[in-house]
Amino acid sequence: MIKSKAKLLQLTVTLTACAFLFIPTVMSVMAGVTANYFKGISSGVTLKWVFQVWELYADSIFLSLWLALACLVVTFIIGLPAAYGLARHPGWFSRVLEEFISLPLAVPGLALALALLQLYGTMKGFRTSWTFILVGHVLYTLPFMVRSILAVLAAMDLKTLEEAAASLGASPPRRFLNIVVPNAMPGILAGALTVVTLSIGEFNLTWMLHTPYLKTLPVGLADSYASMRLEIASAYTLIFFIMIVPLLMAMQWASSRAQRIAN
Amino acid sequence: MTLHLTNTAKTFSDGTRALLPIELTVKTGEIMSLLGPSGCGKTTLLRIIAGLETPDTGSQIFFDDDDVTLQQVEDRKVGMVFQSYALFPNMSVRGNIGYGLKMQKLAPDKANARINEVLEMCQLEKLALRSIKALSGGQRQRVALARAIAPRPRILLLDEPLSALDASLREVLRDELAVLLRKFNITAIFVTHDQAEAMAIADRVAVMDHGTIVQSGTPEELYRNPQSMFVAKFVGSAMLLDGSCKGKKLTLAGGVQDLPKNTTDELVFVRAEDVHISKKGSLTGTVQTTTFLGTHYRIGISGIASGVLTSILAGQTAPNIGDTVKVSINPEALLILPNGAHKE
Amino acid sequence: MTNRTFIVLCLVPLFIFSIAFLALPLIRLFLASGEGAAGWSVYLDILRKPRYLNTLILTVLVSLATTFAALGISTTAGMFLARNQFKGRGVLLSILTLPLAFPGVVIGFLIILLGGRQGLINQITPGHVVFAYSILGLFLGYLYFSIPRVLLTVMAAAEKLDPSLEEAARTLGASPYRVVKDVILPGLMPSLIAAGAIAFATAMGAFGTAFTLATNIDVLPMVIYTEFTLSANIAMAAALSISLGLVTWVLLLVARSLSGTTVAAGG
Predict the structure, then answer these.
(1) Confidence check: pLDDT of A42 > 80
(2) Contact B80 A164 (CB under 8 A)
(3) Which of A187, A194, A250, C159 could form a disulfide with A149 if both were Cys (CB 3.0 to 4.6 A apart)?
(4) What is the pLDDT of residues C159-186, one digit of tens each?
(5) Which of B129, B145, B138, B144 is nearest to B167 (CA)?
(6) CATH code (residue B305)
(7) Does any domain span residue B58?
(8) Could you tell me which CATH number the domain at A48-262 has?
């Protein structure tokens, strides 16, 4: 199979990169179920740490799930009509708006969080509620939802399809529900999975926006890395992997499907 | 339903005058074709009738006595067949056909009966539950037609319905469409750039150019009696015989041609099927091209008029390129137009 | 309701949200940067005061190192995976792209598992080898989240590369090395620049990884964080954030105009 030195070198680089990415992940998983990491896996396999994490951090896991769900709902409600509006109203205004809402992809979360804190930090009721974190998550994930749907909508002849529906007697809202939404489904699905995956893993904004009573999963992770023994930190990471990896795989599948449809 | 347009014009926001003020009447049950080259305004006119474009102020559109000028497209009760068919990919054939009925809030049993009726009329019964993606071009066209006709529209509008099909299929479906449209017994407007299509399907053809209707009439009238050089050339590809007229004689580069009547300052055209290669011909030219087309040859001859003259030759053999041939044209077959029609 | 009204209505929620939670906060942040004791010269202070200037230089250097390392590794691996079909290719591809969704903190922790006091390297090598909290650890952390991003961009570009171009070069007598140099690399160049810009911008703004690893290293996000929380120097934190945001935004704008990709910054 390996024909030349060049191929061998390529394979070596690929495998080294894989090892670099994969070995610490495996170590983390192992450490999470090892009785005593310092002694190694021979000290026995246990779920003790996982249960301990559950006792300590179950709240943070539920908060993250809740936030991801709320974030999905909000990005869907704002993003779907917006993607439709952008697709049907091309022009400088739409381009600027799309570019503007994509700013959170480029600007570090830390800076966005500071900006939100500067403006809304003094509104105590809002500042200390979970909706403040939600705003941050929506800010970060909304462009993914909008672009994912927009890509699918842009690939079909939406205008003519709508004209056809209109000639058959459908009003604008009807056309939106009967024609736009069903045909945008692959984009909506890909967008939704992306939003949930990113929301569950979001740390940069959340760390700045959270309060001691509102810790999300990644905030809890940072907390455990700083203050807990390695086994607990690893077990917590393991729980995170179990949640995020299937989501990520589903997201990649849905995104490539949406892209295939878009082309 | 009778369609009546008065003073209907369209100026786009960039200032382009797509349509100059037009008067047009289409009688109940008549199948009218809007024929013209791309950019002549035919599709704009169709879209104005549908309500997909807003005409300039002062325009008026009547469906019988109903002024629909300000009505939104969804309220106009028109049936439209789009160039790309615009079938809804998220619905089955049945779903597509039933969509207009659903919008009319027709009772389900009535709607089902109507769908079945239309499916049968368009020979789509076996495809009813298929997805749109699983249909051939010809089947899609029939579904688009069935969908437009199912809600019993006041008028049927077709925008180049055959142009998305393969050339081999187009002719068959053209004749099929002509039969179907008559079966529906509905007022219909049909936009095309293909004169053969227009003549095969329409009762009456309106030839359009640069945003106006230059001539309208039955296919025979347009073919035999074009009123302008544009119509003569566009309908049936007439060729100009440019020479000098004197009495009943036309002197060309390749000889003298008899004319049916005295002419002085008029233009003379001829169609390829009336240009005969014959030993007794009074005109002489040189063969430039020969194209074998199965049933006949098409021969391009230079040296008679200033342009290349095309002749249809139904025979077993064709002359060789470079041969000198004699050509005869029956004077009665010539089209004679006043010179004022010269401007395009 | 006309069609146009409906379309405009559809854009209203997005418009309101982005004004309230993006435009206004950013304006507020910008104003806050000028409200400190130094006024607007706070932006000059970034370049004048050694603490900030050194931070800036260090951050740029680490980010540059990350960018070039990630480009080298991911281009090699990406081209190899794009051009060869073999058993286990899918697994390798999954391993190389899965870290996309790992937050920076988790990556920081993984680096600790590699190079921390109880880390793998320290255990299997003689002597005391701990690098997780050094600049090397930070570099490895940045590399960890840059590899998948660059890889995906490169592979997408490699798939779009017309194979007949390579074949044409081969029929004209080009050696495999010349084909890479004359056909493949020029073809990939826009994507490589784009991927490089993404990697650089992400590394510049990476907070999570720095938060776990750079407790003793002054990189830009950490300095912003400490200025804000510990020193309560809000004007400086705001000024640094604005500058950092501008740089990453411009870089990603360039990247997007070159390749049309939208890979999340984050980390």
Answers:
(1) no
(2) yes
(3) A187
(4) 888 888 888 888 887 887 888 888 888 8
(5) B138
(6) 2.40.50.140
(7) yes
(8) 1.10.3720.10
CA C152 – CA B183 distance, rounded (Å): 57
Across the interface, do B90 and A179 touch by the CB < 8 Å criterion?
yes
> What is the interface size between A and B, counted as CB pairs within 8 Å?
67
Residue C247 lies in a domain: yes
Last residue of a domain, one of B201, B226, B251: B226
Residues of A in contact with B103 (CB under 8 A): 168-170, 174
Integer Rg of chain C from CA:
22
* CA A3/CA B330 separation, integer angstroms: 78
Whether the pLDDT of residue A2 is over 60: the answer is: no
B55, part of any domain: yes
Same domain, B119 and B265: no
Please check the confidence at residue C226 and state whether its pLDDT lies above 80.
yes
The 10 Å Cβ neighbour count of residue C253 is: 15
Count of structural domains within chain B: 2
Judge if B42 and B185 occupy the same domain: yes
Pairing of strands B31-35, B204-209: parallel
In a domain, C147, yes or no: yes
Concatenated DSSP letters of B30-85 = -EEEEE--TTSSHHHHHHHHHTSSPPPTT-EEEETTEE-TT--GGGS-EEEE-TT-
> Which pLDDT belongs to residue C266?
42
For chain A, which residues make up each domain, given as ranges? 1-46, 48-262
Residues C117 and C228 in one domain: yes
Give pLDDT < 70 ranges for chain B. 340-344
Instruction: Write out pLDDT tens, residues A176-230.
Output: 999 999 999 999 999 999 999 999 999 999 999 998 889 999 999 998 988 888 8
Average pLDDT over residues A130-143: 96
Tokens of A210: 């959270």
Residue B46 lies in a domain: yes
Q: Which strands, in side-by-side order, build the sheet including B204-209?
A: B78-81, B155-159, B188-192, B31-35, B204-209, B212-217
Token pair in block for residue A82: 């917006």
Give the pLDDT confidence of B252-305 residue by residue, as tens digits: 888 888 888 887 778 899 999 999 998 888 899 999 999 998 888 999 999 898
Stretch A68-73: mean pLDDT:
97
What integer pLDDT is reported at residue C1 of this predicted model?
A: 64
Asked if A182's CB is within 8 angstroms of B90's CB, the reply is: yes
How far is Cα A53 from Cα A66, in angstroms, rounded to an integer?
A: 19
Backbone φ, ψ for residue B158 (5° rounding)? -125, 120
Q: Which domain holds residue B41?
A: 3-226
| Tens digits of residue pLDDT in C86-144 | 888 889 998 998 888 889 999 999 999 998 877 888 888 877 778 888 899 999 999 99
Q: What is the CATH number for B38?
A: 3.40.50.300
Q: Are residues C60 and C165 in the same domain?
A: yes
Interface of B with A (CB under 8 A): 50-52, 72-80, 82, 84, 86-90, 99-100, 103-104, 147-148, 151, 157
CB contact under 8 A, C205 and A79: no
Sign of the CA dihedral running A47, A48, A54, A57: negative
Q: How many structural domains is chain C composed of?
A: 2
Residue B287 burial class via C-beta count within 10 angstroms: exposed 0-12, middle 13-18, buried 19 and up? buried
Residues C104 and C229 reside in one and the same domain: yes
What is the reported pLDDT for C254? Answer: 82
For residues A72-91, give the mean pLDDT: 95
d(CA C202, CA C196): 10
Q: Are strands B66-67 and B212-217 parallel, antiparallel or unpaired?
A: unpaired
Enumerate residues 64 to 123 of chain A having a beta carbon within 8 A of any beta carbon in chain C. 77-79, 81-82, 84-86, 88-89, 94, 97, 100-112, 114-116, 118-120
